[in-house]
Structures are given as structure tokens and as C-alpha cells.
TrEMBL record:
Protein name in UniProt: Protein RUPTURED POLLEN GRAIN 1
Stored Pfam families: MtN3_slv
Taxonomic superkingdom: Eukaryota
One GO cellular component term noted in the UniProt record for this chain: endomembrane system
Gene Ontology MF term list: sugar transmembrane transporter activity
Membrane topology: Multi-pass membrane protein
PANTHER family: BIDIRECTIONAL SUGAR TRANSPORTER SWEET2, RAG1-ACTIVATING PROTEIN 1
Annotated keywords: Membrane, Repeat, Sugar transport, Transmembrane, Transmembrane helix, Transport
Organismal lineage: Eukaryota, Viridiplantae, Streptophyta, Embryophyta, Tracheophyta
Family: Belongs to the SWEET sugar transporter family.
Membrane-traversing stretches: 21-39, 45-65, 77-95, 101-126, 138-159, 165-186
Organism: Cajanus cajan
Single GO biological process annotation from the record: protein homooligomerization
Length: 203
């Protein structure tokens, strides 16, 4: 919310990366599908949480697209279409598998891959953080929520003995710790972040 308040206030997405929101949307959709009775039993919590998550990510993506420059907006729309297309293929393809065990393994592996990519996506901004020695464009609350969410589901996966949940979330916990370490290492001693627009090349 603080990130998008700034984007709306400055009328620009500046150097914020939209990739975490796209990866998170794909992850939420796949994990939502994994939690349904058609794929795995007794995982209603996974479906509920990821349904809400997908709704939030769609709102964030729409806002991001509204304030992105034209060239970037076209790329982002293409990425959104690709993500929805990939999910449709996964949904239809998995329903073609009659064996419920194989179907669960298939969707489970895909959910693992999407979870890991979602946890790693904020790390794309590390190059910028190191180069500028500033965490201004790596939102603290995004990194913190990634860590808390992955840790919670890591424990949930252990309790429910579901490797497709605890393995990727265990990796997510480690990546979340790395992001938090990076944040505090490069955080300004004054604790104040600049709120003025900053637009530079991504190259």
C-alpha cells in the first residue's frame, strides 16, 4: 500500500519493478488450483488464501499499468496475457489427467516452481540496490510479508505433511531472510526514504 500510494502521488512507477506482482498472481492462481478438491483434498485454506491473494495482485497490476510509461505498459499487458494463458493451459491440461495422484503431483510441482519464482522475483532489484546503495525501490513490507508468509506456510506444510507446500516455502523463508538482510545492510542510517520521483534507465 505505501508503494502504490507513492506511485499514485508521483504519477509514475519510477524504478519499482512490476515483476513481483505478476509472479505473485501466477503463483496465487496455481496454488489456488492446487488447493481445490479436484487436485488435493483438505486444502481449503490454501484455496481461500490464494483467492484473496490473486484479487489483490490483480488490483496492484491494474494500478501499476495505469501509471507505467507506454512502452513498459505494453510489455506488462503482454506479460499479463501470457500469465493468464499459462494458467488456462495448466487448468485444462491437468483436468485431462485421469489419475488423481499423478494430477496432484503434476500441479504440485508447478505450484512449487511458481512459489520459488515468486519468492525470488524481488531479488531482481538487487542489482539496482547494490549499484545505488539504496533500498528505496525494494519495499520493506514486500520483503517482510514474503518472509512471514513463506514461514507460516512452511510450518503449515510440515504440520499437514505436504512436501509441495513446505519445500518451496522453506526456500522462500531463506530468500526472505536474504532480502531482509540486504534491506537492513543498505538502509539509510537516517531511516528516511526519498519520496521524490526518480526515473532512470533499466538497462
Amino acid at each position: 500500500i505505501p508503494t502504490f500510494r507513492r506511485i499514485i502521488r508521483n504519477g509514475s512507477t519510477e524504478m519499482f519493478s512490476g515483476l513481483p506482482y505478476f509472479y505473485s498472481l501466477l503463483n496465487c492462481l496455481i496454488c489456488l488450483w492446487y488447493g481445490t478438491p479436484l487436485i488435493s483434498p483438505d486444502n481449503l485454506l490454501v484455496t481461500t488464501v490464494n483467492s484473496i491473494g490473486a484479487a489483490f495482485q490483480l488490483v496492484y497490476i491494474i494500478l501499476f499499468l495505469m501509471y507505467a510509461e507506454k512502452a513498459r505498459k505494453v510489455r506488462m499487458i503482454g506479460l499479463l496475457i501470457a500469465i493468464l494463458g499459462i494458467f488456462a493451459i495448466i487448468l485444462v491440461g491437468s483436468l485431462q489427467i485421469d489419475d488423481t495422484v499423478i494430477r496432484r503431483v503434476f500441479v504440485g510441482f508447478l505450484s512449487c516452481a511458481s512459489l520459488i519464482s515468486m519468492f525470488a522475483s524481488p531479488l531482481f532489484i538487487i542489482k539496482l540496490v547494490i549499484r545505488t546503495k539504496s533500498v528505496e525501490f525494494m519495499p520493506f513490507y514486500l520483503s517482510l510479508s514474503t518472509f512471514l508468509m513463506s514461514t507460516s506456510f512452511f510450518l503449515y506444510g510440515l504440520i499437514s505433511d505436504d512436501a509441495f507446500i513446505y519445500i518451496p516455502n522453506g526456500i522462500g523463508t531463506v530468500l526472505g531472510i536474504i532480502q531482509l538482510i540486504l534491506y537492513f545492510y543498505y538502509k539509510s542510517p537516517s531511516g528516511e526514504d526519498c519520496t521524490e520521483p526518480l526515473v532512470v534507465s533499466y538497462e
